[in-house]
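User: As part of a screening pipeline, I want to sanity-check one entry by hand. Below is the sequence and the SMILES for magnesium ion. Please return the complex as structure tokens so I can compare it with the automated output.
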Amino acid sequence: MPGIIKRIAGPVVFVYGLEKPKKNYIVEVGEEKLLGEIIQIRGDVSVVQVYEETSGLGIKEPVYAIDKPLTVRLGPGVMSTVYDGIQRPLDLLEGSFIGKGEKTSPLDLKKKWHFIPESKMTLGTKLQGGEILGRIQETETVENRILIPPNVHGELKELASEGDYVVSDNLARITNPSQDLELPFYHDWPVREPRPFKLRILSSKPFLTGQRIIDFLYPLVEGGSAMIPGGFGTGKTVLNRTFAKFASTQIMQMTLCGERGNEAADALHSFLKLTDPTTGRLMIDRTSIIANTSNMPVAAREASIYMGITIAEYYRDQGYSVSVLADSTSRWAEALREISGRLGEIPGEEGFPSYLPKLIGQFYERSGRCITLSGLEGSITTIGAVSPQGGDFSEPVTQYTMRFTTSLWALDTDLARSRHFPAISWRISYSQNVREVAEYLKKEVAPDWQEYRTKIATILQEEEELERIVRLVGKDTLSETQKGLLLTAELIREGFLQQNAFSDEDAFSSAQKSYMMAKAILIAHELIEKRVKKEGLLVDPLYEEQLIENIKRLKELNIDGIKEFTDQLPSKVKELSF
Ligand SMILES: Nc1ncnc2c1ncn2[C@@H]1O[C@H](COP(=O)(O)OP(=O)(O)OP(=O)(O)O)[C@@H](O)[C@H]1O
Ligand SMILES: [Mg+2]
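Assistant: Here is the complex for your manual check:
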């Protein structure tokens, strides 16, 4: 017996008479069978959020219970696909539009994949959940390590031999005292349930982005989490795209949440053509995208970030380092607020539901580095963009997210306005990972990496204090040494922190290059300071010197060029005249 719609409030529908409703289980709503999820049970009434447009839906239409929670389908073909918030593939190139109630398979059911079983897998083996049965080359760059679902265990009775299969073919048969299971090449996993792993581990391996201000000043470890709060047009999306292209992780999962439809479509179109700087192949080969634009139903936006992170966990479980880029989590929180309002819940701060911090925490806690169920090492690094209205960071989503993320890359409206990009403020940004990352980079890049980082950070801090003095009493009161420090700070800001995402030479800066640049600037600083102190060299005229201009343009050089420039610095500084 189906339930009956009693009341409709936007994306929320109140259903009477569903038999044995279960929270977080899915239903099909109305004659059109729209996908919905039971989010509350109030006596005889089930409260359902509907993932598709509810206009046209009528009172008394039937609602059918489906005996499973909201899941994501995981198998070969997820990589390089663009999905909507409920995992229907969006064919952007065709410009197709998904109709209401349309059930499209998340995975291509006709495509043949070449499967190679693991040689050590013999029949009779006792298997635990999450073990790898074989491999499929999913895209040119990603090998899908075909896992048995994490919640399945038993004795291997049959295993597909090497050959070509569609995803619904039989991969294996596994039995245990209570089950005899035929497994296809995919499995479904509930999106709101974190996938299990064996052990959480710590790591000092940095999540390198090629962005100097991040990698050198406010680094993040692989498996960590960061947030990018920024007002309108400050560069959140450009930064996310830069990460998608250059970040040191193997797999990307992008969740585009609540962006304007046409802008997201444009961005995706150009993304689909991007080549991967590390492999020379298409970027999309190692990326999976969920696009849920502002014109799509609000409840699907709520689900999309869980969809995204579950997909990320699936690849983590195969032993990959994965990054999750969510843009923007504020739009997700707004979806929660709207649904909560429809439910008549007592609102918390700024109308957001009181459980918002808990949900934000649960989302970021799904990042981390771990030993997977099959004994591999995998990680999820999560980066969430937050778009506070008017760039006001005191609002709830920014504040709550700060509690659960280890790095903060705060975008500053004034910097963006003055076209200092990336507009990451060095005044309020921070990283809790500096010590770990330093351990790693001291070995990989240079033993004195951390000393140079500290010096750069200190000069930027001292500049701030000197500026305060200048504002109070004017520049004339500063000593020549202090003026020299201001000059170096300008070199750091313009020559080092500024980085144009659209420049061929400078969009990506390796950890080595960033270090060499910082070192060159600091060596110049020391040499100049020595002449200022010992010989009374005046600082103001130096702003006109070609040498200063050349230091600002170090970023255009490669590592050898920077090294050569650094070697010539002593003689160049000696040539500076009064
Ligand atoms: N790293 C960068 N290098 C050069 N230009 C940049 C950079 N970051 C941002 N910009 C400039 O700023 C513009 C706005 O950036 P972006 O769209 O990323 O902002 P946003 O914070 O995502 O905006 P919204 O709030 O609308 O989502 C870009 O179109 C570009 O011109
Ligand atoms: Mg944006």
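Points to compare against the pipeline: Residues 230, 232-238, 387, 421-422, 500-502 surround adenosine-5'-triphosphate (ligand 1) (CB under 6 Å). The longest strand covers residues 377-386.
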